[in-house]
């Protein structure tokens, strides 16, 4: 009888993992229900987006209900800590012109991305940040917002002129403006890709180590005790990586919010 080798199962299971990470419909397929005049589907990631939004709204209502001048309880203190962290380390540190005006928006972005990232660590969950369309919708919201506040503060023509840094010679200004407009148009794409790539890569890494833990544990049941003895090591690595992904969830929320503050500052401050 041929000896059991758990590594032979790895390619098929990794292929299944990658299939599961793709944006599937709620029925677990790629098929889109026919809805005239276009083909549309409710993806599992969209459901995750809605769940994240509901969690966010419930947290905000609970915070408002329990809020007081002197915070009481771990829940309120945790949210106050996040609020102060965003205010001091992101908003006031980056935005020069009237930073408190933009604190609610940047804080909302930070908390929503953080909740979505943490939801993504629940086995089987399909979060908004786990698919490019989800992160792109967030970054496009940021894009619309910073352009809106820039136009509101400086006017349409004034905002367009502010794209070119002061002191640029007149004959170079059109070239610089064209470059800046293209760069500005690419901001939502790069911001979305940065968040999506981090979350997606984290899911793949966690999934692979979970698979390795499973197939090596199965070695014990199939008599391959030498393989099975390594199971605790794979499980320990999985736990360490899981903790690391929790840290990355906070870091990515910070980076996404930091870029949001930078874009707002560029739109509202004078060059």
Quick synopsis:
Helices cover 72% and strands 1% of the residues.
Quickly list its features.
271 residues, mainly alpha, two-stranded antiparallel sheet, 2 strands, globular
Could you characterize the architecture of this molecule?
With 271 residues, the protein is mainly alpha-helical. Helix 3 crosses helix 4 and helix 5 packs across helix 6. 72% of the residues lie in helices and 1% in strands. A two-stranded antiparallel ribbon has the order 1-2. The protein is built from nine helices and two strands; from the N terminus they run αββαααααααα. About 3% of the residues have low confidence.
> What is the number of strand segments?
2
The radius of gyration over CA amounts to: 23 Å
- Strands of the largest sheet, in order across it? 1-2
Shape: globular
* Mean pLDDT over the residues: 81
Low-confidence regions: 31-38
Based on secondary structure, the structural category is: mainly alpha
> What oligomeric state best describes the polypeptide chains here?
single chain
Largest sheet: 2 strands, antiparallel
Distance from N terminus to C terminus (CA atoms, Å) equals 75 Å
Separate helix tally: 9
Question: What are the SSEs and their pairings?
Answer:
Blueprint: H1 10-21, E1 34-35, E2 38-39, H2 44-66, H3 74-94, H4 103-119, H5 132-154, H6 156-162, H7 173-221, H8 225-228, H9 231-268
Antiparallel strand pairs: 1-2
Helix pairs in contact: 1-7, 2-4, 3-4, 3-9, 4-9, 5-6, 5-7, 5-9, 7-9
